[in-house]
Amino acid sequence: MIVQHGDYEIDTDLSRVQFDQVHAWLASSYWSPGISREKVEKAVANSSLVVCAYRDGEQAAYLRIISDKTTFAWVCDVFVGEAHRKKGLAKAMVKFAIGHPDYQGLRRWVLATKDAHAVYAECGFAPVPFPERWMAHFPAS
Predict the structure, then answer these.
(1) What distance in Å separates the CA atoms of residue 77 and residue 116, rounded to the nearest whole number?
(2) What's the whole-model pTM score?
């Protein structure tokens, strides 16, 4: 499934994912520093949806969705390459995922961000109601 966003193609075709680029982005991110390429590839293979943006065959951005496609979806690993920022790609890709036919009727979409709250607010995200109900488990690696 491909849609246009200006000069960019937003696509879900896993055969187009440029793993060298995606691994470099995620390994340098604040949320998964040093992640191995093997884990990046395994995450892609086990995600319910991967959305990428391309310009002239070059991968410009990446995100993935973890979901049961029935009640819940988590938007994660959103990364836009530096040369492609400020073009609305993250917002376009999130809106693409939310509007995807396989993800209609969900009760909840979630994500976590350190610094892009305004971008996601434009996609309909808001602070989690009742944050005291949410918990996390961080097993020793």
Answers:
(1) 13
(2) 0.94
Question: Distance between alpha carbon 123 and the CA centroid of its chain, in Å?
Answer: 13
Q: Does residue 139 form part of some domain?
A: no
User: How many domains, in total, are found in the chain?
Assistant: 1
Looking at every residue in the chain, the average pLDDT score rounds to 96
Are the C-beta atoms of 93 and 53 separated by less than 8 Å?
yes
Q: Is residue 27 in some structural domain?
A: yes
Query: What pLDDT, on the 0 to 100 scale, is given for residue 141?
Result: 66
Integer Cα distance of 54 and 73 in angstroms: 24
Domain CATH code at residue 67 = 3.40.630.30
* Structure letter (DSSP) for residue 14: G
Residue 61 lies in a domain: yes
Secondary structure letter of residue 107 according to DSSP: S
CA dihedral angle for residue 41, residue 19, residue 55, residue 6, rounded to 10 degrees = 30
